Structures are given as C-alpha cells and as structure tokens.
C-alpha cells in the first residue's frame, strides 16, 4: 500500500497495465481497492502538493477532491456513442483546474498517467467557439504577447504545442490574416512527456513544474 505523502508508484502503472489486459467489470470490481489506493489517493496527494505551484500564476487554481466532477477524471468510459465498448479507461487523468471549471472553458494543469504514455499538459483543450473567438481577439489585440508565449525558449525546449487545426477559421476571421495560424488552432494546449522513472521515483515537484 502506498505510504502517506507518496504520489504515484510502480503499483500505479502495474494496476493500469493489468486493467488494460482485463478491461471488464468483474475484474475491476475485484480490484477496485487498487484503483482507490494506487490511482485515486495518489493523484489527490499529488494535487495537494502541486497546487501551490500554479498559485504563482493565479490563486484561482484549486485542488478539488470531490469523487465526481473533481480533479480526478472518472475511470469509467462513456461508451454510448463509441465503437470502443471497453468500460474503463486504462489511464488516469488528473488535473488542477481553475475554480470556474464547471462554468466556462478555462485553462487547466493536467497529468496523464499511462504505462508508456505519461505526460503533463497545460492550457485549453478544445475550447468552444465563443472561447476560441475570445482567444483570437486577444491575439489580435496583443500579437507580441502571443508570439512571446508561443516562441519562449524555456517553453519550446520542453513543451510541444498542439498542432490540431480547424479545416477553416470561424466565420468573421480574415482568411489571409498574418496570424491565421493562430486563428485556425483547434486548441491552445501543450504537453511534455515523462518516463516511468520520473513518474514513480522522482518526488521533486520541480520535475513536473520547472517548464511552467
């Protein structure tokens, strides 16, 4: 069992790997305690230690321990409209959200834990059309700030900015605007990958936050 004060361990990855191999309700019911100890409790402890770091940017980022709708994403998949009918996610999604995360599209800090695919993410993932317009208007108003953030050497050395683009800009955007690359972005999020050793052995928060 994970000791108080520890975050994710090798058992976290073992559980998620086992879940991928036994993705059914009977197996999960028999191993639910492992999810609670090695995923949920570890993720919430990580967030409690991590939250002071985003506060350097804004005091509005919070740790939300609610079992539903909080910082930790549900492990159950919504299979209603998916061809993939596996009932559970074989990864853990853990975020430090803005306090208004239930009301509007807002930035988040996110850690994705998955054997062979762990990463941290920052920014806005797939904001809706009104929020996209708000972001574009801000870029038009202050293009220097956008370029400075996008091209910052410390940022680009560790983070990869999402490359997903809309097929065309939203109505009202000039198709030959010099910043059309920003206007056609589908998201304003970036990520940085980690290996298993960093995830399970390195307890220095700087390993996760130096590239902020």
SSE diagram, text form:
Layout: H1 10-21, H2 25-30, H3 32-50, E1 92-97, E2 108-113, E3 118-124, H4 129-141, H5 143-151, H6 153-158, E4 160-161, H7 180-183, E5 188-194, H8 196-201, H9 206-209
Antiparallel strand pairs: 1-2, 2-3, 3-5, 4-5
Helix pairs in contact: 1-3, 4-5
Name a few traits of the molecule.
globular, alpha+beta, disordered N terminus, five-stranded antiparallel β-sheet, 5 strands, 212 residues, UCP028451, 9 helices, 13% strand
Explain this structure to me?
This is DUF2461 domain-containing protein. InterPro entries: CHP02453 (IPR012808), UCP028451 (IPR015996). The protein contains 9 helices and 5 strands, in the order αααβββαααβαβαα. It has helices at 10-21, 25-30, 32-50, 129-141, 143-151, 153-158, 180-183, 196-201, 206-209; strands spanning 92-97, 108-113, 118-124, 160-161, 188-194. Strand 2 (108-113) and strand 3 form a beta hairpin. Helix 1 packs across helix 3 and helix 4 (129-141) crosses helix 5 (143-151). The longest helix is centred in the N-terminal third of the chain and has 19 residues, at 32-50. It has a domain at 10-125 and 187-209. The protein has a 5-stranded antiparallel β-sheet with strand order 1-2-3-5-4. With 212 residues, it is α+β, with helices and mostly antiparallel strands. Helices cover 37% and strands 13% of the residues.
Quick overview:
By secondary structure, the chain is an alpha+beta fold. Helix content is 37%, strand content 13%. It holds the Pfam family DUF2461.
């Amino acid at each position: 069992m994970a000791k108080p004060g520890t975050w994710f361990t090798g058992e976290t990855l073992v559980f998620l790997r086992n879940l991928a191999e036994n993705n059914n309700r009977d197996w999960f019911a028999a191993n639910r305690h492992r999810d609670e100890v090695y995923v949920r409790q570890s993720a919430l402890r990580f967030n409690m230690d991590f939250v002071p770091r985003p506060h350097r940017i804004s005091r509005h980022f919070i740790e939300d321990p609610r079992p539903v709708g909080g910082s930790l994403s549900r492990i159950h998949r919504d299979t209603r409209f998916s061809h993939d009918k596996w009932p559970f996610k074989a990864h853990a999604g853990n975020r430090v959200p803005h306090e208004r995360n239930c009301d509007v599209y807002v930035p988040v800090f996110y850690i994705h834990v998955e054997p062979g695919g762990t990463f941290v993410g920052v920014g806005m993932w797939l904001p809706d059309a009104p929020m996209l317009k708000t972001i574009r208007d801000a870029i038009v108003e202050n293009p220097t700030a956008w370029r400075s953030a996008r091209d910052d050497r410390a940022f680009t050395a560790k983070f990869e900015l999402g490359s997903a683009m809309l097929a065309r800009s939203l109505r009202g955007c000039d198709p030959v605007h010099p910043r059309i690359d920003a206007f056609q972005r589908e998201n304003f999020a970036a990520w940085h990958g980690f290996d298993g050793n960093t995830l399970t052995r390195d307890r220095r928060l700087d390993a996760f936050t130096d590239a902020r």
